[in-house]
Amino acid sequence: MQLTVYLSGEIHTDWRDQIKDGCEKHGLEIDFTSAVTVHEASDAAGDMLGAEDNPFWRDHKSAKVNAIRIKTLIEQCDVAVVRFGEKYKQWNAAFDAGYCAALGTPYITLHEPDIIHPLKEVDAAAMAWATTPEQVVEMLAYVVKQK
Questions:
Q1: H-run or E-run covering 136
Q2: What is the pLDDT of residue 87?
Q3: Contact status, residue 3 vs residue 31, Cβ threshold 8 Å
Q4: pTM reported for the whole predicted model
Q5: Cα–Cα distances in Å, from 77 out to 31, 33, 51, 52?
Q6: What angle do CA 15, 16, 22 make, to 5 degrees?
Q7: Where are the domains of the chain?
């Protein structure tokens, strides 16, 4: 079985690489997709539409340009992994999880136990909650390899 897995959320650590590397070591045929993970590029995605003096409108345009990519990739994925990190609040990740839930796309949340309560609704709709990238790899290996 080959899967397309969308990796959503926190961009300040190497969790995506850990999952990709782990899946490669297991010999899993998985295509990984993601939003743009270079913060500056994501923030500037709307700049091609013209300069903005008001930061609200710059963010608004960039969010819409980014959403073209994100919406398309979530709609095309078989499963999503939604990471909530420690340093910043990932409102975009919560939005992605909600979109997956609305589409009926299975998703796995990845976060530390100390934010269980604020993510209770997000976790309730998830198919699984993991605390490490290794757990995600093991789940994906089970899904792909079990007969």
A1: helix 133-145
A2: 78
A3: yes
A4: 0.95
A5: 9, 8, 33, 34
A6: 90
A7: 3-145
**Amino acid making up residue 15:** W
Fold of 3-145: Rossmann fold (3.40.50)
Residues 79 and 107 sit within 8 Å (Cβ to Cβ): yes
Q: How does pLDDT run across 51-100, given as a tens digit for each residue?
A: 999 999 999 999 999 999 999 999 999 999 999 998 777 889 999 999 99
Q: Considering only CA atoms, which of 17, 18, 10, 30 is closest in space to residue 142?
A: 30
* Percent of the chain surpassing pLDDT 70: 99
Q: How confident is the model at residue 147 (pLDDT cuts 50, 70, 90)?
A: low
Element (H, E) at 79: strand 79-83
